[in-house]
């Protein structure tokens, strides 16, 4: 199973979002996220991916319900999305991976179509969970790496 960690970052009723340059989702808006590689802590990945994709440093303050996506002809994906707040805003990004980074009004994002929003149904569910306050304490992640 592939694990993907990312963040929903809100400020002034806006989400910090990235516009993808990846060929399979080119031009679609997404919440900053990426793959957990090897023995990385999920929390570290979420923070790292936000920094790599936006240039912003964040603090994790909660986590949304975790979901599994069944991908046709590929490994399932475990999706972990944290709620985060910006502690240092310095928007910059690799133009090979990201086309744009913007603070987008929540209502505007909710009105986007499947052609505009990556993983549309999942993104809309994240927004619904956030609005319904389905946010759990960050302490559910013990941030210890166990080895055997």
Topology of this protein?
Blueprint lengths: L1 E10 L2 E7 L8 E2 L2 E3 L6 H13 L2 E7 L3 E3 L7 E12 L9 E8 H5 L9 H12 L17
Parallel strand pairs: 1-7
Antiparallel strand pairs: 1-2, 1-4, 2-3, 2-8, 5-7, 6-7
User: Mean of the pLDDT scores?
Assistant: 93
What percentage of residues falls in helices of 4 or more residues?
10-25%
Radius of gyration: 15 Å
For the secondary structure, the number of strands is 8
- Domain tally: 1
For this entry, give a set of tags.
148 residues; alpha+beta; Nucleoside Triphosphate Pyrophosphohydrolase; 8-stranded mixed beta sheet; 3 helices
In short:
The protein has 148 residues and is of the alpha+beta class.
Question: What does this protein structure show overall?
Answer:
It is a single chain. With 148 residues, this protein is an alpha+beta fold. The chain has a single domain, classed as Alpha-Beta Complex (Nucleoside Triphosphate Pyrophosphohydrolase). Helices cover 20% and strands 35% of the residues. It is built from 3 helices and 8 strands. Strands 1, 2, 3, 4, 5, 6, 7 and 8 form an 8-stranded mixed sheet that branches. β6 and β7 form a beta hairpin. It is globular, with a radius of gyration of 15 Å. The two termini are 20 Å apart. The mean pLDDT is 93.
């Amino acid at each position: 199973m592939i694990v993907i960690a990312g963040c929903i970052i809100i400020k002034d009723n806006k989400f910090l979002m990235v516009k993808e340059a990846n060929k399979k989702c080119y031009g679609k808006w997404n919440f900053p996220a990426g793959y957990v590689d090897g023995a990385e802590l999920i929390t570290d990945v979420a923070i790292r991916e936000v920094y790599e994709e936006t240039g912003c440093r964040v603090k994790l303050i909660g986590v949304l319900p975790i979901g599994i996506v069944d991908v046709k002809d590929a490994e399932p994906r475990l999706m972990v999305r944290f709620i985060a707040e910006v502690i240092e805003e310095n928007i910059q990004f690799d133009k090979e991976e990201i086309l744009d980074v913007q603070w987008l009004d929540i209502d505007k994002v909710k009105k986007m179509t499947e052609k505009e929003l990556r993983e549309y149904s999942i993104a809309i569910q994240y927004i619904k969970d956030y609005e319904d306050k389905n946010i759990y304490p960050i302490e559910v992640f013990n941030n210890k790496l166990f080895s055997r």
